[in-house]
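can u pls check wat happens w/ flavin-adenine dinucleotide
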Amino acid sequence: MKQTGLVWFNHDLRVHDNPVLLEASLHCERLICLFCIDPAWFKPTGLNARPMGENRLRFLKQSLQDLSQQLAERGQSLIVLKGNPVSVISDLISRFDVNVVYRSHHIGVYENRHWQHLRLDFPRLQFESVWSHTVFRSEHLPFELDDLPSSFSQFRTKVEQLSIDAPVSMPARFAPPVDTLCKQSEKVVIEQKKTDAFVGGETAALMHLDSYFSSTSPANYKETRNALDGWSTSTKFSPWLANGNLSVRKLLQRLRQYEVEELSNESTYWILFEVLWREYFQWVALKLGHRLFRAQGLSKTKPNCCFYPERYQKWCHGNTPYPLVNALMKQLNTTGYMSNRGRQIVASCLVNELELDWRFGAAYFEQQLLDYDVASNWGNWQYIAGVGMDPRGGRHFNIDKQTRQFDPDGRFVRQWHGEVSSSQLDSVDAADWPILPDNSK
Ligand SMILES: Cc1cc2nc3c(=O)[nH]c(=O)nc-3n(C[C@H](O)[C@H](O)[C@H](O)COP(=O)(O)OP(=O)(O)OC[C@H]3O[C@@H](n4cnc5c(N)ncnc54)[C@H](O)[C@@H]3O)c2cc1C
């Protein structure tokens, strides 16, 4: 029987080191390469944000256009269809006698729900889910998921010495597409803003990989990684990793090459260290399932917080009484990116100064971040809110101290117009009485 495979692309938008595509191409005589644009991404969730904001969508479309080009060069064609993935895929399975459905393994509860749904609807079909987003495959880990270490340090110690699979080599041409389908693909219309620092797609990702490791930046990473700004202070791989434009194993292979050919020091080790944080959060998310999104996370009780719509709006728009927080949020809203230290500061502010439910902050980040990754985002937020895996409790960053340390001359705050328009956090008091301006000063 002629094998027709359907490759459901998701967070693996690349042709290099893509074991899903390789497997499908080896075993099928014709292939449907599909990406689904799910209308649910554009609807507000219960946490007041839309999963896919404007900047994220632009980066995604750039990635799709590049993937389409890469596939075309190898005899394939990307079909982009709008609709609920279960309906879209079910329809294609029936119309084109699909025998096997492939995807990259996803740790997201929502994405897995779609996958399970399809498996139940088509019990006789073959479904193949392949690891491509993580450094390790589950069977490589030296412990069962139930025994995942409860702290990052223990996790790191256990996995650091494991050997890492080399990226898989890809064929020059893939199995051919189903011709009649190509005409039905959505046209991906790309807009690129002149100010975009990040451009989606594996071409841009591989260029950045090369340029980063051709520079001296890796040698100083540990000293510069906490800076609030600057292209070369940290690696800036995250948006490409999150969308799968860059394979994490390819990144680690390049890092190793730099260490062998150029230099190996504490900074180059620290890049691996941070990539292992990403890895840890992936397995944490897989273990926690729905608990990753619960207010109380792994704690027995919910954090003491309330929902103040005005404070939340002020935080989102960068209009709080804290200039550094304002500047950081404006940077995020404009560029879709914020440094790690910046993220820690604004997240701590939302939880501690504004006393808001951390999940609203996480949902807003999901909408805005180019590098949104379900595991890294919700895992880091849980960590700051003190409801995650780490037993040491939450993190409270002193905003004044952080400002003195990371923006001593106020340059960052001025650049992003973080100046405070009102030092008042709320315009009414707890009993809804308006708060009058203090004229005594
Ligand atoms: C509240 C909060 C939310 C976050 N949300 C996300 C998210 O949605 N997606 C995301 O990729 N990262 C997230 N991070 C982690 C981190 O801030 C970014 O990965 C990092 O800032 C990206 O910039 P970079 O590539 O230059 O990082 P580098 O400092 O150069 O690090 C190299 C790589 O290591 C990984 N990494 C570094 N720090 C972390 C970390 N703390 N957790 C997980 N991975 C890490 C990233 O893949 C990164 O690309 C979040 C952090 C916080 C505090």
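The mean pLDDT is 93.
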